Amino acid sequence: MRLLIRIVAIAVLVALASLALLGVPAPWSPSGWFLLGTSALAAVALLVREGRARRGLVLVAFALLVILLVVRMVGANEGMITMRTLPGGEPARWLARLVDEQDLTRVGARVLAMRERLPPVERDALLPAVRWGYQQVRRDDAVFPSPVLDTLFGRQAPAAFDTLVIEPRAQPKPGVPMKFGVVFLHGYAGSFTLECWLMARAAREIGALTVCPATDYSGRWPNEAGLRIVRAALAYLRSRGIERVFLAGLSNGAAGALGLLPQVASSFQGVILISGAPAAGDVGEVPTLVVHGSVDTMTPAPAARAFAERVKATYAEFDGGHFVWLTRPRDTREAIVDWLMRQTGYHVRP
Q1: Is 106 helix (H, G, I), strand (E, B) or coil?
Q2: What average pLDDT score do residues 272-295 get?
Q3: Other CB atoms within 10 Å distance of the CB of residue 125
Q4: Predicted model pTM
Q5: In the sheet that 288-293 helps form, which strands lie side by side, from edge to edge?
Q6: What is the CATH number of domain 81-344?
């Protein structure tokens, strides 16, 4: 039995070392590194002879794990990036605080880069872009909630769905409500805090509050469930005193925004479609911005250009693929900020 325990401990340490090496080119989150270290300490305890030393190491590893869980459970909903469970408005559910999104996303991005037919300009840039993105998110909040696990476990429904809420940096004076808000719809694979934050950092330039509701993994919005979720997100913004709202969507979320628009057009001041403008569809009289990658292999750029020309939308195209919003964050942000400023007259740039 003693030999078997040692073999298991050595196997665990080898696996942890491999995970640590994988975290060099695309690093794990601080929580991820902390968990790797705690797990390694527990594995080392199994190699030590039974006695005080082993019990001490086990207790230390257990205490460190408890500390990590407490920090995540308490701190993941206390900063500028918070989460509400709408339509009731309760705080974030426990799954949203359990795991750092960066660790889930870096694994997903690596798998995506290997499996999907991404253009070379994007395949090489995706992991560094994810790393840069989470570094920037942590400047707002070191610990933040994420809808990813609730989505994976099928817990997003009109009766209870995660909604990320990202406040503008400068709060209005007491008694003066915020003027603008943005409802952002995610794409396939569900809602991610990183994507919501990318929208929020542009929306902050007009002092807007950003809310990012979550639907199921498919990211299909043009149905009864999607409509109810969008209306609940709107109701939340109205409860905050915000009347001028923009609708934005990424990939499936962009197509979903367009699909829902006939039913909600009167509630929005404009629409932002990122990497998801379809060949068909209409926006009526609603001002529209289309942001797209020039070599997008999932939603072809020629279709997006034709759509923008047909509906007289503002069109912004950049060198990149379907994930151009991640790989060209500064350029795409500038395009969104300039368009929002022109729509609102908020310190319009020359």
Answers
A1: helix
A2: 93
A3: 21
A4: 0.89
A5: 90-91, 81-86, 161-166, 209-213, 180-185, 244-250, 270-274, 288-293, 314-318
A6: 3.40.50.1820
